[in-house]
C-alpha cells in the first residue's frame, strides 16, 4: 500500500521559512516524479514544484521560483520542500504526490497546513 505522509507545516510570520517533508513508502519510486501542490481556501489546487526521482530534475511554478527549493533523499524515500521568504499568499494546505506518467498523478498525501501571517 503506497503512502505519502507530509509533515513540517505550521504557522510562520511573513519572511520566515519552513521545510516540508513527504515520506513515501509502499513501493519503489524509481521512474516517478514527486510533486508538491497547494490549495488555499476557496481556490483550486495548484502545482508548486516537482522533481524526478532518478535524475533530480526540477520544475517550479513562477510564483515560488527563487524562494522554494524541492529536493529528495533517495535513501530515506523522502521529498522535501524548503520554503523561504514566505508570504501570506503562500498560506494553503500543501500536499505531495507521485506520478509515473506525464498525464496524471497516481498517489496523494493527506496534506499539511501552512499559514503565513502578515
- What does the main sheet amount to? 7 strands, mixed
Structural class: mainly beta
Helix content: under 10%
Kindly report how far apart the N and C termini lie.
40 Å
For the secondary structure, the number of strands is 11
Strand and helix order = EEEEEEEEEEE
Strand content: over 45%
Compute the gyration radius: what is it? Answer: 13 Å
List the uncertain runs.
none
Number of helices: 0
Task: Give the integer mean of the pLDDT values.
Answer: 96
How are the elements arranged and paired?
Elements lengths: L2 E5 L2 E4 L4 E8 L7 E7 L6 E7 L5 E3 L7 E6 L4 E6 L8 E8 L7 E2 L3 E6 L1
Parallel strand pairs: 2-11
Antiparallel strand pairs: 1-3, 3-8, 4-5, 4-9, 5-6, 7-8, 9-10, 9-11
Amino acid at each position: 500500500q503506497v503512502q505519502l505522509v507530509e509533515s513540517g507545516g505550521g504557522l510562520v510570520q511573513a519572511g520566515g521559512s519552513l521545510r516540508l517533508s513527504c515520506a513515501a513508502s509502499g513501493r519503489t519510486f524509481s521512474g516517478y516524479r514527486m510533486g508538491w501542490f497547494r490549495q488555499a481556501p476557496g481556490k483550486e489546487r495548484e502545482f508548486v514544484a516537482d522533481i524526478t526521482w532518478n535524475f533530480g530534475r526540477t520544475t517550479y511554478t513562477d510564483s515560488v521560483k527563487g524562494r522554494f527549493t524541492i529536493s529528495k533523499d533517495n535513501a530515506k524515500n523522502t521529498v522535501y520542500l524548503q520554503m523561504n521568504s514566505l508570504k501570506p499568499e503562500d498560506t494553503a494546505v500543501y500536499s505531495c504526490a507521485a506520478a509515473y506518467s506525464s498525464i496524471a498523478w497516481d498517489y496523494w498525501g493527506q496534506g499539511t497546513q501552512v499559514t503565513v501571517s502578515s
